[in-house]
Amino acid sequence: GRQQQMILLDHAQRQSRDRRRSVTALPAAKQYQNAGGPRASQDFGRPASIPLSDNDYQPHILQFQGRLVEDMNEVNTWSEAVVAGWIASLDMGQYEKYAIAFMKARITGPCLLRVSEEVLAEIGVDAIGDRLKLVDYIEQLDRRCKKPLTAKLVLPSWPECVMRMLDFGWANTSEGKGGQAIKEELLQANQSIALVSTLTWSIAWDLFFACATSCYCQQSSEHCYCSTAWDIDGRPLIIFYCFAGLAAFFFMFSTIYAIVQIIMVNEMSDEEEIDQFFDLLTMDAQLPGILLFVGMVCFSVPVGVYLIYNVGLGLHPGPPTTTMTVFSWMVTMFTLLISIYGFLYKLPQMIKGVYKAKMDAAWIDRQPPNHFY
């Protein structure tokens, strides 16, 4: 009987050792799942990883010291540990206490840029002030990464502002917008351009068609009264005619292109199609504005010709009375000064303001948020 008891005891001990050995042989990730760890289906499709230790983020802190991250491709490669290291590096380690919370929430680089104040509260950032400042840091990171070219802008000189006024280059400096925001921007801009172009087109068209000489003859008489168009004759009339026609056609095509672009962008079904459409459109998106501006420049020539060469009130050959001469000079000089002020000073200054605002915003995004509190 004692021998049978010894055999049974030995068999039970052997089974116990086998069970312990089989548990030890399980993969670490499987043991973690069996212990209640998150599975792949709970992690946005990523395979579950081995539990992260509390010190896994610390080697990554050094890579962020004294350096601003401005590359979206780099952020997209960040693992949970790298994100936690970035959090721990902020504001001289003030938020390192939340690094473990970010790791446990499995927040990677792409997820970090979508973190809101509500998400921070959910993962354990209880202090409202810390949540607000962390959101500011994350939004700054997002803006820096989405606007790499804005950070490289240089304040243009006056001649450069004039050139960018002519080619509408200043209107092609926005970055970081989503497809829907780009669509709204184009729709609003082109609707305004189409409205202004249509109004000025009708005026320029009237000037262009009215350049023909008009004659009025009596049916019972061979005598006719003829008047040159706009009381202008000779070479000034030719210049008037040519530039009025150019202005009319520039305004017309500005209207057409603006309306066609509105129809095209409305044909895009989602944000991805809008992004692809604008990548293909490139500088053609500014074409309605360019045509409108060139039309305005051409339109100013007939106005100047009329002020100078109008037979009745123009500066040449001059009005019949001194009072009318003074009045004509005042109108001509005022028109000249306001044109110079608008085209050569105010518009270039406003364009420089666009670049200055972008550069100032980029500078602010390179400062810690607590710099402004």
Features:
single chain; 2% strand; two-stranded antiparallel sheet; mainly alpha; 2 strands; elongated
How would you classify the quaternary structure? single chain
Question: What helical percentage do the residues reach?
Answer: 55-70%
Number of helices: 14
Question: Structural class, from helix and strand content?
Answer: mainly alpha
Which shape, going by the Cα principal axes? Answer: elongated
Spans of 5+ residues with little confidence (pLDDT < 50)? 16-52
Please describe what this structure looks like.
The chain has helices at residues 2-24, 28-34, 72-76, 80-89, 99-104, 109-112, 117-123, 128-146, 158-167, 179-209, 235-266, 271-281, 287-309, 322-365; strands spanning 214-217, 224-227. The chain is mainly α. The protein has a two-stranded antiparallel sheet with strand order 1-2. A hairpin with a 6-residue loop joins strand 1 (214-217) and strand 2. The longest helix has 44 residues, at 322-365. The radius of gyration is 36 Å and the shape is elongated. Residues 16-52 have low confidence and may be disordered.
